[in-house]
Amino acid sequence: MAAAAKNKKTPENIKISASYDVIVIGTGPGGEGAAMGLSKQGKTVAVIEREKDVGGGCTHVGTIPSKALRHSVSRMVEFKKSGFNLETDIGAKVTFQSILQHTQRVIKDQVQLRQGFYYRNNCPIYQGAASFVDCNTIAVTDANNEIIYLRAKQVIIATGSRPYRPSDVNFNKSRIYDSDSILSLAHQPRSIIVYGAGVIGCEYASIFRGLGLRVDLVNTRDRLLSFLDTEVTESLSYHFWNSGVVMRNSESYSKIEETKDGVVLHLESGKKMKADCLLFANGRTGNTDSLALANVGLKPNSRGQLEVNEHYQTTVKNIYAVGDVIGYPSLASAAYDQGRIAAKSMISGNTEGQLIRDIPTGIYTIPEISSVGKTEQELTEQKVPYEVGRAQFKHLARAQIGGVDVGFLKLLFHRETKQLLGIHCFGERSSEIVHIGQAIMEQKGDGNTIEYFINTTFNYPTMAEAYRVAALNGLNRLF
Questions:
Q1: Which CATH superfamily includes the segment(s) 367-475?
Q2: Most buried in the list 60, 246, 267, 319, measured by CB within 10 Å?
Q3: CATH topology of domain 16-162+285-348
Q4: Would you call 361 exposed, middle or buried from its count of C-beta atoms within 10 A (0-12, 13-18, 19+)?
């Protein structure tokens, strides 16, 4: 042991290929936000990406592909609702594999766009796996196992996350997938079990049901997406039920076995379920296990996540972390802002910048869900005297024209001050609609009241008109 320690390379005898002000590990939204923010302030920045293209999991296996898939399936559902038959009317047989072609085009365009950002901002990209030698030295191992060493004054970890894979589930089987490997689905299943009813599980349950598969959704909790407003989650549950998704709440697996013609899921309650394949979507793990964090004294938690302060600084003062690798809120939009704020903090000495208080949530089920601000349950618990204004999409001319009349907009506001407290939207275009209310809610003084929507003029017909309808409905409830 003593000899091994003596022969081990030390930072003094390592040949450094290049030195920078900052090294950013990972090119997802968090890494991109940090790199762009730092380079625009005159810092020399290098980025390390282990995959062959930039963009991180968000672009290649997460947000972009799942939302592109969802878009295609949603348009297909709307087409069918309008009375058209895809195979007879346009001569197209739609399969999971065929709609993936659109997804791949979107990914290619995103990669080209983001590659240009680094090029224009003079941020060299080193391809390979990063690991810490010490607090200022990073080893980059490429696909040929060749290693170069980079040095920097500061480092940002933005390595993202991957699907959680429990040790008792064999993902090497041909019919058991996670949310990354499902994109390589080669056969055309007729049925699927989705284990895990979080955001990813609900989104993929929507996608596969829209494609006509029989879908069983197993939820380890007592209701879907319990962090959302109860009325919204109940609406989603009803829509799933009405569309034919079979939901099983408060269940967990005891065993998953693959048979010659499918997968059997054994539940701890004694139930058994069978389908052509299974998507395991029950949590994610931070990508920190290959970074050699022990060399710098950092220890992630059991899910591979790092602890940071309000400036995204770890316990090692020159090392920061942003994005999924630090856990909540695990949103691409928030990760970009975290990277941008971390960059400001590194430059100014941790004196400025923080995420907005109310981060919007977008969930791309079919229909979409989006919300920002307080829920009814939170306001009730806090004893805030609030009122509710609602607009049903089925009453809007634009929704009727587009055939997207399922859903609603709900505004929560203070009974006395009329201040806007929360916005909850269920239905198509929700993730776009919510930002109108968010902009008003963030205004200072008297500019953030529900009366704004009464006193302004909306284009007609538009989905945005739902704000005027909901505001009138809510104000009419006051006495």
A1: FAD/NAD-linked reductase, C-terminal dimerisation domain (3.30.390.30)
A2: 319
A3: FAD/NAD(P)-binding domain (3.50.50)
A4: buried
